[in-house]
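Quick one: structure tokens for this chain, please?
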Amino acid sequence: MSDKTNRSVVTVEIAGEEYTLRADTTPEYARDCAAHVDRTIGEILHGGALIQTHKAAILAALSLTDQLFQARRETDALRQ
């Protein structure tokens, strides 16, 4: 784990809400991550179905987790 003194604090907006993040990364990386989550939620919200923001966030989390698991499977397959 990195040294806590290297933490950055950055404010981001996701789905119209402001969040203050404390991260062991650069502010730019934290903003990029937040922007990716925001885009994913936005895609779900603008997909045609009327859905509440918190439900869109859950669906976005499932979508992002699916992407992560697929990338892990591909990485494992390449290693073998």
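The chain has two helices and two strands.
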